[in-house]
Amino acid sequence: MGLLTFSFQMRLSRRLSGLYKPILLIASACAFAYLLLADPDNSESGAHAKKSKHHKKHHDTGDDYEVGAREEFPGFEGTIMGRGLNEDVPKEIYRDSGKLGNYEPDQATIKEMETGTGDYGKQVNWGKDEEDAVRKSIKEFGFNMVMSDKISLDRVPKDIRDPKCKYVDYPEKLPEVSIVIVFHNEGWSTLMRTVHSVIKQTPKELLGEVVMVDDASTKEHLKGNLDEYVKRWNGLVRVHRNGQREGLIRARSIGAMQSTKEVLVFLDAHCEAEFNWLPPLLAPIARNDRISTVPMIDGIDGNHYHFTTQGGGDRWGRATGAWDWSFLWKRIALPEPEDKKLPSKTQPFPSPAMAGGLFAINRQYFKDILYYDPGLEIWGGENFELSYKLWMCGGGMLFVPCSRVGHIYRLEGWDGNPPPKSLKDNPSMRNYRRVIETWWDDWSKYFYVSRPEAKTLDFGDISAQLEFRKNHCPYDFNWFMKEIGYGVAVEYPTPPLNKFWGEVRARQGNQCLDSMGHTNGGSVETYYCHKQGGNQLFRLNEGLQLMQYDQCLFMSGSQLKLSHCSAGDKAGWDYDPKTGLISYGEKKKQRFCISLTSKTAISKVKFVECDANDDNQLFDFNEIHSV
Ligand SMILES: [Mn+2]
Prior knowledge:
alpha+beta; Spore Coat Polysaccharide Biosynthesis Protein SpsA, Chain A; 4 domains; 6-stranded antiparallel β-sheet; 26 strands; disordered N terminus; binds manganese (II) ion
């Protein structure tokens, strides 16, 4: 494909605000059908190029909407990575009913796949005599391996898709994929069912290779056994072994480097691909190599192995990725303005963030945008790093309702994987800082509202990330939050900034306010000051809230309590650093102050009438900084 055929014609304003009208879809679908008739192998002939121009004209006559299809960035002097939109690749054709789509398996094919136990995602149960073995396996692997072992590695998945997904035609020529599966000490049957299901549910001509990346597993079943087992696929499945534990993030980048096909598809090591999952993921990438796509992620129960539809979202189950301002992963319903741009409920929709474990991306593009930041350790924040990089550097991300993959969530009672010994404390928090300091611009202050102690945490060198952004990313975080992530700020409003924060220490003795780990209705008491933050870290913000993490402190009778709060809630707090009084009152005049009840460190506090001459009411906020 030549670079010359890409559209440079869409105006920025239209690209950002344009609506995708159904009439246009019909127009482009007709153009596509015409192209197919005239040029069935979709090859690059001169005639094709001409028709392609004609095809393009349809887009120029109205408001079309194409995620990430941006070629002009006024005032930006750097280069955008990836080739961008290729209008020669036709869009998918969505029909409501009728003939099955071109990659869709028919009933007879599905019938032939049947294996018995657990087929169609049905649940499996165990007997009393197995309970000990079950508990042991959950402790070791996070899943009930006893039940997993009873289910065929080739079982038929449940079909959770909107029935309309069966009638979609995808471009005939889709790119080949490398499936990348990173694992560390995974259980055998859940890991291998991931591989089996991918091979079984993927059209042969699209499945280039499966690259299993062993991140220094120590369990015996993942060594020679595994090498022997994958031989049955005659080289289709390869195992790459990391010499030392790299963590999930770097191991994924290594998997990308070890792969050779045009598109990479990352899967967690405990998944099951559902029917016709791959073509819907590939179509948007074939058309625009700066787009990453993400399947719907259904739940597979880690005990009984039945499928449940991904929860949340709007009426049609469409949820986008999001975060709160302390940088926890969240999911929110697809915002209405985005829905309005889409001609049907089964079409891919943009998401400001991905969960991270399952996604597809063009291999060369992932390389060009430097994979993940190699300074990120083990797990945490890398999904946001990639999300921001995609959107702010001229690409984008789509969640694809017709592509569904089941994922087993770890059960309680799992021992977990211990981090490598060389790792510093707080790896996730250091990761968060790297990502935020690289991408959030002035919005980083909102992160430090709930994590003020992290402001001093060492996160290493991000100069390479900043340099990349300067040279290749035309958009800033303001643009991103206005155009792409606006739904996040509606669901999670930016928090008021802190006026005072730290441990709240009585001016006399060695007593600090301490939530004692209480939340949601529990009381705040005092304890020996320990300077570790945690339960002794409080913040008084410009919204006049006194908070600990996401909990608001409030006056309940004469007691000091805390409970979950939203912005503007439980406001009315004040602190005077001169006198040391912490007061609360809904009105300016009628105020009450926090007071110690005894001189012993471990005791209760109460509300009394404010009196700056009473030593029991005098406190300091001492900031505590992590290193
Ligand atoms: Mn997982």
